[in-house]
TrEMBL record:
Protein keywords: Aminotransferase, Pyridoxal phosphate, Transferase
Transferase in keyword set: yes
GO molecular function: pyridoxal phosphate binding; transaminase activity
Protein family membership: Belongs to the class-I pyridoxal-phosphate-dependent aminotransferase family.
Pfam families tied to this protein: Aminotran_1_2
Protein name: Aspartate aminotransferase
Native source species: Balnearium lithotrophicum
Annotated Aminotransferase class I/classII large domain residues: 31-384
Classification via CDD domains: AAT_like
């Protein structure tokens, strides 16, 4: 059977592959420490689980509207107003199978064959694959380590052509942990609004910021920027709900209606029970987050400090999300590794730690390590990293 060109051109997610490989090795009794997964190690809060159990007991187990249950669309509108200072009507919101499917539906709704989509590099692995799948052309612009990987208007401007349809902004950023300050978002937003370029604002890590940095939602900046922005978010990272698969998009009604239509002809709706749980997550107090953020912060500082003590490794202090993105170019050279893949493989074989090579994010010479794992794992894993490196040098 011949497969479609569309699917043959798509690469499978390398981060999911590494996570699966680490799990496979662990199942075989090999003591692998996983720094690959982008998922909180905390459990979903109890009141969220209770809401799901209640939904089952009440028989809330049938199809829902493809846009999501009205209660959840209202809860998202309430959240966006109260926490992000953006006014969206519930009709401007679609509930999706995680942020990943929100982005997928958006690409399929707005990209025409040959349209260009600007993607800052390093990038989250999924963006270019979804753009290509929708018939678009990814155009990469590089964010620089010397500028803390923060995206600026100057990075974007030279890449814009008459075919530019969309730009994907991610702040806080996966994999670099960079954040975009409000002033820069405003410059970028104004530029896009003037040219009618759509912005996909991926804000999945909005709550995970450190050192007093406060996240700004792109669409909150002005009405003109809001008109060209689709806000993408999910409950996955904030509420440790990666497996529940609930995300959402909010934006101009005609785009959201198109995304709902895709839901109606593909997934039908997001799991009814998970939607009820999501309502509880969004409207109930989020005090638990303070402890989680404190724990991430401690791990972040520890991990970066230890990484910087490994020969040939230098790592910036990330300002958000839960990833460290060390530069390992010197280590690759001095350790005579072929590239970052070779180094990651060596670390898996020799140190029994799973990390993601930077090439997966379009940036060779880096590694991504998630600190959404226990302090104990971080201490032990980085000790193994250092030992394996010293043995090699
Ligand atoms: N956007 C970014 C930047 C991510 O890192 C991820 C997950 O890793 C997602 C979107 C997808 O999140 P979800 O699990 O809600 O689909």
């Amino acid at each position: 059977m011949e497969l479609s060109k569309r699917v043959l051109n798509m690469s499978p997610s390398p981060t999911m592959a590494i996570t699966s490989k680490a799990k496979e090795l662990r199942a075989k009794g090999i003591d692998v420490i996983g720094f690959g997964a982008g998922e909180p190690d905390f459990d979903t809060p109890e009141h969220v689980k209770e809401a799901a159990k209640e939904a089952i007991d009440m028989g809330f187990t049938k199809y829902t509207p493809p846009a999501g249950i009205p209660e959840l669309r209202e809860a998202v509108a309430y959240k966006l107003k109260n926490e992000n200072n953006i006014d969206y009507e519930p009709e401007q919101i679609v509930i999706t199978d995680g942020a990943k499917q929100a982005l997928f539906n958006l690409m399929l709704s707005v990209i025409e064959e040959g349209d260009e989509v600007i993607i800052p590099k390093p990038y989250w692995v999924t963006y270019p694959e979804q753009v290509k799948f929708a018939g678009g052309k990814p155009v990469f612009v590089e964010t620089k380590e010397v500028k803390n990987f923060t995206l600026t208007l100057e990075d974007i401007e030279p890449a814009v052509t008459s075919k530019t349809k969309l730009i994907i902004i991610c702040t806080p950023h996966n994999p670099t942990g960079a954040v975009i300050p409000k002033e820069e978002l405003e410059r970028i937003g104004k530029f896009c609004a003037e040219r009618g370029i759509l912005i996909a604002s991926d804000e999945c890590y909005e709550k995970l910021t450190y050192d007093g940095f406060k996240h700004t939602s792109t669409a909150s900046i002005s009405e003109e920027i809001k008109e060209v922005t689709v806000t993408i978010n999910a409950l996955s990272k904030t509420f440790a709900m990666t497996g529940w698969r609930v995300g959402y998009a909010a934006g101009p009604k005609e785009i959201i209606d198109a995304m709902i239509k895709i839901n109606s002809q593909s997934i039908s709706n997001v799991n009814s029970i998970a939607q009820k749980a999501a309502v509880a997550a969004l409207v109930k107090p989020k005090d638990f987050l303070n402890d989680w953020i404190k724990a991430y912060d401690e791990r972040r500082r520890y991990m970066v400090e230890k990484l910087n003590k490994i020969p040939g490794v230098s790592c910036l202090m990330p300002k958000g999300a839960f990833y460290a993105f060390p530069n390992v170019k010197e280590l690759i050279e001095k350790g005579r590794f072929k590239d970052d893949f070779d180094l990651a493989e060596y670390l898996l074989e020799e140190a029994k730690i799973a990390v993601v090579p930077g090439t997966a994010f379009g940036s060779p010479g880096y590694l991504r390590l998630s600190y959404a794992t226990s302090m104990e794992n971080i201490v032990e894993g980085l000790e193994r990293f250092k030992k394996a490196v010293i043995e090699r040098l």
